[in-house]
Write a structure and sequence with these properties.
Length: 116
């Protein structure tokens, strides 16, 4: 089941970023909603999803690493920040901008993860 969840996380994350970059935005919004639902249940586990997201921040796709680092922040802030720092140099501007934005919010103490 864990493998299935990871595959679903990757698939939804790639759908989300494709919608952001190429449209339609409805595709992105639908994927985002499903990512939030999936990650809420994962983050409610005993380790707050640490093992799950730690594996995914090594994924080949920068979008997957960004999403995984975002949720990893709940259980391992230092490792998530290190990944955001690395993603600032990503070739995809949407990924590097999101990483910079996350770091900006973290520096101000206002970074939040919501499951709405």
């Amino acid at each position: 089941m864990k493998k299935d969840l990871k595959e679903e996380f990757v698939r939804l994350t790639l759908r989300y970023i494709e919608g952001i970059e190429n449209g339609p935005m409805s595709k992105s919004h639908a994927a985002h909603k499903r990512i939030q639902m999936l990650c809420k249940s994962i983050c409610e586990s005993e380790d707050k999803g640490n093992a799950f997201f730690s594996e995914l921040i090594t994924h080949a796709e920068p979008a997957v690493r960004l999403a995984a680092a975002t949720f990893l922040y709940l259980s391992d802030q230092a490792r998530a920040i290190a990944e955001f720092q690395a993603l600032k140099k990503a070739e995809q501007s949407s990924i590097s901008m999101a990483a910079v934005g996350n770091l900006w919010w973290i520096e101000r103490g206002e970074f939040q993860i919501t499951f709405d």
